[in-house]
Structures are given as structure tokens and as C-alpha cells.
Automatic annotation (TrEMBL):
Any one Pfam family match given in the protein's UniProt record, by short name: Mob1_phocein
Organism: Blattamonas nauphoetae
Gene3D superfamilies in alphabetical order: MOB kinase activator
Protein name, entry field: Mob1/phocein family protein
InterPro entries: MOB_kinase_act_fam (IPR005301), MOB_kinase_act_sf (IPR036703)
């Protein structure tokens, strides 16, 4: 299918009843930033195509049980190498933009929301009444005037909502006098939201594995926080798990 030459009004496309995935599916992989004129959408498009190219079909149970395969490792390496280009915005034809890392982080939040959605049946007030990673790490929910104990699913939902609000009101605030502040807010968001991975890994491993297998979301998030020094290596899952880490991490 030919790439459209002029920029369409994307909101028009929504009104015509086409979903974002359908639009992405229809566009060729080489579609450039100029077509979207929107960083968020462009990043989501690049990730969509990357997943399609390297990981499609990985949800398949047979492959899921075959984590050790060389083929899988090669695919993941290739995927991560290409993801590096997205992280830096390099070679993507995106105009110089100091907000680029924040757009990346915000698009990761959207995907974490999707991960949390996969837990609807397994993570409830009854199964997970407190937010914890492994048993020794429990967290109070900071999305309230006074931090309080929310059950895990509420904690994750509240933290995602608060994080998105922080992005809209503080990180992306052009009036912010101190650019370091935006970075601090982004780092804080990254640290808090990372606890979702901790909870899902230690308490809903099957869901974690399936999602990771299909998207490499955790691996991408780690690459992102390492690149920007948003988190200490000792707070990442690999360090928490120790030498017995499974090879899909
Ligand atoms: Zn849970
Ligand atoms: Zn809460």
C-alpha cells in the first residue's frame, strides 16, 4: 500500500472508526515522523512495527515454553538494537526535541496500563490486599493526600493515573523555569511505576511472562531508565531476584 503523501488529519481517521492499531497496520514501516507530526503517536507506531517485525506470533504457547532458543535470543537482540534508535530518536528524522525522553516514558506508561489490564482476573482486593513485590517489599500508595495502603490493583491504577497527571501538568510544562525539575519528576514517575513490574513478576508470573514474551516491555523499560540514570541498578528486578533470574528477563 502506498504511503500517503500529505499529512492526514489523524483525528478524522478516528471518526471514521479506524482504531490506532488498524491505522498502524495499514501504514508501511518506513512511514516517517512528518506523517504523524506527533511524538507520542510516532513512538507508538515505531514500537508497534518493531513488535510486529520481531515478536509477532511469540504469544504462541509452544514458543513461549522455549525461552532458551537461540532464535528467540537473536530476535530479542535485534529488537533491542532497533529499540535503541527509538530511545535516542537517532536516525528517525525527528526534529531535535528536549522532551523526547519524556515522550518515550509516557508511551511506556500506556503500555504498562495494558499490562495492568491483563491482571483484571488475577489481581483483586482478595488475592492482593496490599501492594508488594516480593514479600519483604511492600509499598504505601502516594497518590493520596496522606500515603495509604491500597490493594495492589488500586495502587497500580492510582499510580498510573497520578503519573500521567504529573506528565501533563509538570513534565511537559514549557513554563517550568528549571529544566532539571522536569527530569526529577520523570525520574520519580519511573521509580514509582517500576513497582508494577515488581508486583507482577513476584505475584503473577504467568501474566508477566506472557506480556514480556509478546512485547519485551520490561526489558525496554530497563534500557530506558539505565540510559537516563533514572534508577539504581540495585532497584531493578535482576538485582532483586539474584542469580536465579529466569532467562526471559
Ligand atoms: Zn496482584
Ligand atoms: Zn491509592
Amino acid at each position: 500500500m502506498e504511503q500517503p503523501t500529505s499529512t492526514p488529519d489523524i483525528s478524522d481517521i478516528w471518526y471514521q472508526g479506524i482504531t490506532q492499531d488498524e491505522l498502524f497496520e495499514h501504514l508501511p514501516e518506513e512511514t516517517e515522523y512528518n506523517y504523524f507530526q506527533n511524538e507520542q503517536l510516532f513512538i507508538e507506531f515505531k514500537i508497534f512495527k518493531l513488535i510486529q517485525k520481531h515478536l509477532r506470533g511469540e504469544q504462541n504457547t509452544r514458543i513461549m515454553n522455549n525461552y532458551q532458543s537461540k532464535d528467540r535470543e537473536q530476535k530479542c537482540d535485534l529488537f533491542m538494537r532497533e529499540y535503541d534508535d527509538i530511545l535516542s530518536g537517532k536516525s528517525l528524522g525527528v526534529p531535535e526535541n528536549k522532551y523526547w525522553p519524556y515522550f518515550i516514558l509516557r508511551s511506556l506508561l500506556v503500555e504498562i496500563q495494558q499490562l495492568v489490564c491483563t491482571l483484571s482476573k488475577v489481581c483483586t482486593n482478595e488475592t492482593c490486599p496490599i501492594m508488594k513485590a516480593a514479600a519483604q517489599w511492600t509499598f504505601l500508595c502516594a497518590s493520596h493526600t496522606k500515603p495509604q495502603q491500597c490493594c495492589a490493583i488500586d495502587y497500580m491504577t492510582h499510580t498510573l493515573d497520578t503519573s500521567i497527571t504529573i506528565f501533563n501538568t509538570r513534565v511537559f510544562n514549557p513554563a517550568e523555569a528549571n529544566p532539571n525539575k522536569a527530569q526529577q519528576h520523570a525520574a520519580q514517575v519511573a521509580r514509582r511505576i517500576y513497582r508494577v513490574f515488581g508486583h507482577v513478576y513476584f505475584n503473577h508470573e504467568q501474566q508477566f511472562k506472557a506480556f514480556e514474551n509478546a512485547t519485551l516491555l520490561h526489558r525496554r523499560f530497563e534500557a530506558f531508565v539505565k540510559k537516563h540514570n533514572y534508577m539504581e541498578a540495585s532497584n531493578l528486578l535482576k538485582a532483586m531476584i539474584g542469580p536465579n533470574e529466569p532467562n526471559y528477563l
